[in-house]
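> example.struct
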């Protein structure tokens, strides 16, 4: 069931009459439902405890990916609401029916993802901050990827984890050595438009086999960051990577850098879920 406050607001301000609600599972952070409405099937996600502008930033991220063009699908958004009193925050968008996706579809999706990465910008970062899951993500702009990765990605998450007692303060010494070694690790690259949270739960194929992107944490970063993210939980189909490499060449040694990029999502998981992720992050950093 969706909250009456949302149903009433949709009717009053967006002329959306909800006829049927089907709860959906799968989201880690928010509640989600498929709404059958007078405007067709719509997808609603909502959260009573969402940070104030979380859904607004998600909508902006979806817009940036959609504007990148190409033959990739990004759901059209219809309305967003910041949480206010009894009213939960929510995001309403087009519902996209999912299909199976053949290996040819995965190849085309990989090629399209490379096309998104070819959208560039003068700086790493973005002109506004956003969220990864429900955690704030700082996108302060930097000329150097190395500086951006350390200052805006790793340091804030390490600080949050230490403040919450999930990592020991002694890890800071390891971090300093890790940052020092990074200076010779990353291959040079122009800032690329990234999805930013590209794990297997944040894409699917529609009924025509077109790749669909959802739930982004967009910024301009090193393209290897998105690719490493795809390998965080088991990886994407092999054809996805072949498709990607049919458009963009990977720098030698990428496999050896995956764990380094994925320290960021690992730390995000430490801060969202704790537990085993914290010991994994600690073991990784203690190698330095
Ligand atoms: P959360 O932010 O809570 O992780 P997601 O945006 O990942 O939520 O959505 C949860 C699930 O709902 C996804 O795994 C996906 O299967 C489905 N989903 C998300 N957006 C759409 C959409 N526009 N149309 C159809 N299904 C969607």
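> example.seq
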């Amino acid at each position: 069931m969706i909250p009456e406050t949302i149903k009433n607001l949709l009717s009053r301000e967006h002329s959306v009459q909800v006829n049927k609600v089907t709860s959906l599972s799968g989201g880690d952070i928010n509640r989600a439902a498929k709404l059958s409405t007078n405007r067709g099937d719509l997808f609603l996600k909502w959260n009573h405890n969402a940070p104030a502008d979380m859904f607004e930033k998600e909508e902006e991220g979806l817009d940036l990916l959609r504007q990148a063009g190409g033959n990739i699908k990004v759901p059209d958004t219809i309305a967003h609401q910041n949480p206010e009193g009894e009213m939960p925050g929510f995001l309403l968008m087009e519902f996209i029916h999912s299909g199976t996706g053949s290996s040819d579809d995965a190849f085309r999706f990989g090629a399209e993802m490379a096309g998104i990465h070819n959208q560039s910008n003068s700086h790493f970062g973005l002109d506004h901050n956003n969220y990864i899951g429900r955690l704030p993500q700082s996108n302060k702009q930097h000329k150097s990827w190395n500086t951006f990765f350390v200052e805006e990605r790793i340091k804030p998450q390490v600080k949050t984890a230490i403040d919450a007692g999930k990592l020991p303060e002694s890890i800071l010494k390891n971090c300093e050595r890790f940052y020092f070694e990074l200076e010779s690790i990353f291959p040079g690259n122009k800032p690329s438009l990234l999805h930013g949270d590209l794990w297997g739960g944040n894409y699917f194929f529609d009924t025509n086999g077109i790749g669909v992107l959802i739930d982004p944490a967009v910024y301009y970063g090193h393209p290897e960051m998105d690719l490493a993210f795809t390998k965080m939980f088991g990886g994407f189909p092999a054809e996805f990577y072949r498709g990607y490499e049919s458009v963009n060449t990977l720098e030698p040694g990428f496999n050896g850098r995956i764990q380094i990029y994925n320290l960021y999502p690992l730390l995000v998981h430490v801060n969202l879920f704790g537990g085993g992720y914290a010991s994994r992050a600690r073991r990784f950093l203690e190698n330095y």
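> remarks
Residues 24, 26-30, 32, 43, 45, 75, 93-96, 201-202, 214-215 surround adenosine-5'-diphosphate (CB under 6 Å).
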